[in-house]
């Protein structure tokens, strides 16, 4: 014999239903929010688009990382120099902003495996016929004053047989002089140049100049998130997800030998 539920029974059922809504089904994990610090305004890694939305290579990457971890993600705008204290104090869980892994930094913070090799590069006019540094013999190269490119050109100018080295305060004036024929090639950071020329076919990035600089996600020292995020990065590399991001933001596929494609180890101090 069955009885219709009375008021007490109905109230108990409602309480149980609300509890299931609040806490999820048995064994379910409530999503956490991954707090990621970034220096917003760092093209093309993280910046605001015309609609005011935060976008960029590392924004897309960290959104996917959080998704694979089952977390939500929020980006907190912090000046670059403040990111280190922010992860160490626990203000944020992780930091991105084209952060180079260095032995000095590894003494106080931790990194997951790298996902981008920030080398130098040679950019020329596409019609010049120059296909690499060998083609710069007897020609004038432009660099940014005091930059890694400046150091490279100064140290290797004799080997590469540059006729002259001209120094600039930033990419824009150098590219104007390249277009005007006042220099024959420009040596600078490969991400900046690939992003700049992707919709300007008159220019061409013709050679990568290795420097050993690599970017990754930064965490507090020995954070348990390091291993979790590193595992996700391995998966995203194997699936070609990060390589696709490279094509989207830089207009070209990454070289197979770079850390954008190849699995790497977690950096050790």
Automatic annotation (TrEMBL):
Record's subcellular location: Cell envelope
Record GO cellular component, one term: cell envelope
Gene3D superfamilies per the UniProt record, alphabetical: Periplasmic binding protein-like II (3.40.190.10)
This protein's name: Transporter substrate-binding domain-containing protein
Domain named Solute-binding protein family 3/N-terminal: residues: 33-253
GO MF terms, alphabetically ordered: ligand-gated monoatomic ion channel activity
Entry-linked InterPro entries: Iontro_rcpt_C, SBP_3_CS, Solute-binding_3/MltF_N
Annotated Ionotropic glutamate receptor C-terminal domain residues: 33-252
Signal peptide: 1-30
Organism: Lichenibacterium minor
Main localisation: other
Keyword annotations: Signal
Keyword Signal: yes
Coiled-coil parts of chain: none
Taxonomy, superkingdom: Bacteria
One Pfam family this sequence matches: SBP_bac_3
Family membership: Belongs to the bacterial solute-binding protein 3 family.
